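Shipment paperwork, digital attachment
Item: protein structure file
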Amino acid sequence: MSSLLDYLAADLDKRQTQGLMRQRRLLDSPQAEHITANGQSFLSFCSNDYLGLANDPALVAALQAAAAEAGVGSGASNLITGHHRYHDQLEQALAAFVGMPSALLFSTGYMANIGVISALMGRDDAVFSDKLNHACLNDGAFLSRATHHRFAHNDVAALEKLLQASTARHKLVTADAVFSMDGDLAPLADYLSLCERYDAYLYVDDAHGFGVLGPQGRGSLQHLGLASPRLIMMGTLGKAAGVAGAFVAAEKIVIDYLIQYANSYIYTTPAPPPLSAALLASLHEIETGDARRKQLFDMIALLKRELSLTRWHLQASETAIQPLIVGDNHEALALSHYLQLRGILVPAIRPPTVPLNTARLRISLSAAHGEADVRALISALHAAEREIPVGPQA
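Attachment content:
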C-alpha cells in the first residue's frame, strides 16, 4: 500500500480501538417513530423529524403533484435557469413566517452556514463563536479568513470581553439557538444586546428551534421576542419541517448581497422544485401544528419526570434533544447496543462531536412518539443500568 493508504488504515484502526468508529444504518422505511433498518424493526429515538412530518400525506401529495408539473431536477444553478417559481414562493413564505424582510434558500444547512459567513466576513473582520457551535459554523468562519474567536459555552461575559477588545472592521457573533448535542438554548437576547453595543451582527443557527419553538413554531427568535436589523437567522428544512434544505432570513440588503457573493448558493444546482412545493405544505402544517408541538412537549416532560437513573444522567434540556450523559466511549456504545438488541435505536455520540469524557446517548423525541413509546425507552434504560457491567470496556 502507499503511505497514504497505510496512514488511513492506521487511523481507522485507532478510531476503532478508541470506540470512535462511526457506522451507517440502511433504512428500508419512511422516517418515523417506528422504522425498519438493517432488515429489523425498531422504535427510533434517532430522528430530528420533531413534528413527524417526514412522511406526512399532505407533504407527499404536494411533492408528487409538483413533480408531475415541474419535473424532478432544477437543471441549472439559481443564477442561470434553476430558480423555479416554487423556490421563489417558498422564500417569500419563509420570510413572512419568521418575520424577516427577505429569505434565501440553500440546499443544506451546512451550505447555508459556510456560504453566509464566508460571504459576509473577510480578512479584516472577526467572527465570535460559542465553543459548542455546530461544525459548519466553525467551517464558515475558517473559510471567511476572518480572525476567529471562540468563547466558552453560553458565556456572555467572555463574549463581551472579546467584542470590547476587537478592532476588526466588521464583527459577527455566531451561535446555535438550540445546541444540537446538548439541547440547551443560547442567551440570544444578551448576545443581541452586546451586538448593538459593540457594532456587531448576530448570526443565529436555528436548525433545532425552527418549527418547534415560538408561537406557531416560528422559531427561537420569536420564542424570545427578538427583532433587529442586526439579526441574521438560518433555519434548516430537514428537521421539524420534515423535508430537506435550509433558508437564511435577514434584511433585504443582506439577502441581495448573498445572492451575489455566497459561493455555496451561486455555484451549485438548487434542490429540486418539488421539494419546495412539499415545504410550502410543511409550512402550513407547522403554522397549524400546535397539537403536534403539545404532544412533543408532553413526551419531553414524561421522559424527564419518570427517568430515574443514578449511573447516567439527563443533561438539563427543555427541548426535543435529551442528552443522556454516559462519559466513557465504550460504555456509551454498550448502552446503545443494549437498547438496539431490545428493538430501540438511540445513537451513541462520542468525541470529537462532543467534548472528551462526555460520550452520551442523544435521545431525540418527536410528536410522532406516543406515551407507550417513551415508557418503553424509560423501562429499557432502567434495566440497562442494572445489567450493563460498570467499567471502560462495558
